[in-house]
């Protein structure tokens, strides 16, 4: 795909994420939404569906030749999807529980996947009016009313001794996370809500690592993976194997780890415990 094409698609996705995010924020502030439980017991709201509708409408109009995979729509069987050389991957609201709980820690996620690899990542945080985005091989960036800059993971002064900042969900037991961390290091907790915002905090150096337990979908990591990778970090499965996109019938992820500074030997620090999810 030509670089110019990717840059144009990035701008389209940024506009879609911001437009959906601002509508979602209006719904959030008004409190005028209804919550439901999906078959997997995860929550969804009318705001999720509205965000999905806005993003889908823009992408279908601006890029009708690119298929779309979204958490809130049926994706079809692998026999149909496996031929997609590139496609949009959407999580209209990442952090629906945080939206319902009114913490403000929710975000709109859009990724472009090419040959099973995230090449564009766009994450908009409505409550903070902050946009994180990245293009493969071109770096990761943050735009907010206060600043506009390229972002990078935090570089450790001493990879073997520095205090490690762990992003931990507000609704996650700290003991569960610490059970997977080496007792030989010192840690500081950074409480935050949605999965993608924790990844963005790592990308901009406000945290160093995040462990995700439990069921997630590929739409939960696509945009984050592009942003974190371009910022100098990585996202890998709990056994440090790569995550995959559109290669399996099921679109669920394994438990995964988001890591910052790659000079740190994370395999000696993070010790995933079987049955800890």
Write a structural description.
With 277 residues, this protein is an alpha+beta fold. The chain folds into two domains: 3-151, Fructose-1,6-Bisphosphatase, subunit A, domain 1 (Fructose-1,6-Bisphosphatase, Chain A, domain 1, 2-Layer Sandwich); 164-269, D-Maltodextrin-Binding Protein, domain 2, CATH 3.40.190.80. Helices cover 30% and strands 28% of the residues. The protein has eight helices and 16 strands. The strands form five sheets. Strands 3-4-5-6-7-8-9 form a seven-stranded mixed beta sheet, sandwiched between helices. A hairpin with a 4-residue loop joins strand 7 and strand 8 (140-143). The longest helix has 28 residues, at 3-30.
Termini Cα gap = 39 Å
Number of discrete helical segments: 8
Would you give the CATH topology of the largest domain?
Answer: Fructose-1,6-Bisphosphatase, Chain A, domain 1
Please, what is the average pLDDT? 93
User: What is the approximate shape?
Assistant: globular
Question: What's the β-strand tally?
Answer: 16
Largest sheet: 7 strands, mixed
Q: How many separate domains?
A: 2
- Radius of gyration, in angstroms, nearest whole number: 18 Å
Share in β-strands: 25-35%
Low confidence ranges? none
**Assigned CATH superfamily of the largest domain:** Fructose-1,6-Bisphosphatase, subunit A, domain 1
Biggest sheet: strands side by side, in what order? 3-4-5-6-7-8-9
| Structural classification | alpha+beta
Q: Can you tell me the CATH architecture of the largest domain?
A: 2-Layer Sandwich
Order of H and E elements? HEEHEHEHEEEEEEHEHEEHEEEH
**Could you estimate the helical fraction of the residues in percent?**
25-40%
CATH class of the largest domain: Alpha Beta
């Amino acid at each position: 795909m030509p670089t110019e094409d990717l840059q144009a698609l990035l701008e389209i996705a940024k506009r879609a994420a911001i437009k959906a995010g601002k509508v979602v924020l209006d719904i959030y502030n008004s409190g005028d939404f209804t919550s439901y439980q999906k078959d997997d017991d995860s929550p969804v709201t009318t705001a999720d569906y509205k965000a999905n509708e806005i993003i889908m409408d823009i992408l279908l109009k601006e890029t009708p030749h690119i298929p779309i995979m979204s958490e809130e729509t049926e994706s079809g069987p692998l026999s149909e999807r496996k031929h997609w050389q590139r496609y949009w991957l959407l999580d209209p609201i990442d952090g629906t529980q945080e939206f319902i709980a009114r913490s403000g820690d929710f975000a709109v996620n859009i990724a472009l996947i090419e040959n099973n690899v995230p090449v564009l990542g766009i994450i908009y945080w409505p409550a903070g009016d902050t946009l994180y985005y990245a293009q493969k091989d071109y770096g990761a960036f943050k735009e907010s009313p206060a600043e506009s800059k390229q972002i990078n993971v935090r570089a450790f002064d001493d990879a073997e001794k520095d205090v490690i900042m762990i992003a931990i969900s507000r609704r996650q037991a700290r003991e569960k996370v610490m059970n997977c961390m080496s007792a030989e290091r010192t840690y500081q907790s950074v409480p935050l809500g949605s999965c993608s915002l924790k990844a963005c905090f790592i990308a901009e150096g406000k945290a160093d690592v995040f462990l995700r337990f439990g069921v997630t979908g590929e739409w939960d990591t696509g945009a984050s993976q592009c942003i974190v990778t371009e910022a100098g970090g990585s996202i890998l499965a709990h056994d440090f194997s790569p995550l995959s996109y559109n290669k399996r019938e099921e679109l669920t992820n394994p438990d995964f780890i988001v890591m910052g500074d790659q000079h740190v030997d994370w395999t000696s620090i993070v010790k995933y415990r079987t049955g800890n999810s």
